[in-house]
Methionine aminotransferase
Amino acid sequence: FQSKFPDTPTSIFTEMSQLAIQHKAINLGQGFADYPMDPLLIKGVTKAMEEGYNQYAPSSGYMILRERLSEKTLKEHGQFFDPETEITITPGATIALFTVIATFIRPGEEVLYFDPAYDSYRPSVTAVGGIPVSVPLNFPDFSLDMQRLQSKISSKTRMIILNTPHNPTGSTVTREQLLALYELIKDTDIILMCDEVYEHVIFDHQQHHSPLGQPLLRDRTVSVHSFGKMFNCTGWKTGYIIADKALTTEIRKVHQNNAFSTFSAVQIAIANYMEDPDTYERLSGFLQNKRNLLEDALKDSPLKPLPVKGSYFQLYSYAGFSHLPEKDFAVWLNKEAGVTSIPLSALTENFGDHQLIRFCFAKKDETLLKAGARLRELG
Ligand code: PMP
Ligand code: GLN
């Protein structure tokens, strides 16, 4: 057979994590924590399994969890989403993104996404015959360029993918930008898909602005979330989608045939665990301390941090130190300094090489300090 994806490389996360193992490097590349998750949530899953939650969950997810998410969304964004018809539990955010794309994109239709971007957006669009169109963010603050966005909208545009807080740059969108987005799409049938997996990781007393909180955007927004990021259990691959009833009806037509449902006991345990909002509301402060710790540890190194408003990633510039392209530098750093990063170039299409690498700071303090010591030795 002829490969349908001859140009698709191995994911950069797989590649860099393998290099980390090979060179026994400290892995600040792939986005996952190296500290344990809350044992209380693990006990909750065991308990739910013992209670018999081991067969298929309802296709859209257990109602107790959907109700919790509806209450949470109302509290945080001031808008009610019906747990019966507007909230769907999925096996993680990546599959949720794919499901939404497969639901709405017909062959030849265009999907605009901001560049750089999480690496699954582009291939998910091409897999269903859509055309991904990159809209580079402004440099160096990684803000949205509304004029650039407008210039890319065509009669073929069917969806815009937004990600806030943003992986890999840590930038966030403002309420004004959401309203400007509405102005751009209000007379079209463009759907806004907002990837909000880092909604609870936001720093320096800022607020997360979601399109879910904008009544004007209600009937055209699909938001995607991940419990993996909320509760430090990325391996559990559980997430959810919130969207207006008409959109959710369509999304569930695809969801029921690709996933059907997801891990029963995890859903019950998370619903119980979420009774205490502190379990996720404390995340921002916890990770802000880690961001600061890594910045301090690298103060006397040749790597210079760029500002970050949210997510657990930060870009560092090596421009004053090396002229290598980003990928070559990341490979070199892994081998020579024993610290693994993600080259920004692996997450961009048309953004250019700005000598930037991404570190994940969701790591034990001792891991960050050890990485800092190794990187300071670069001189
Ligand atoms: N979106 C973004 C922006 C991410 O960084 C990630 C990281 N894994 C995901 C989606 C995927 O989340 P999940 O692990 O729940 O599939
Ligand atoms: N979201 C994580 C990151 O950006 C990892 C995703 C993955 O391994 N596919 O690093």
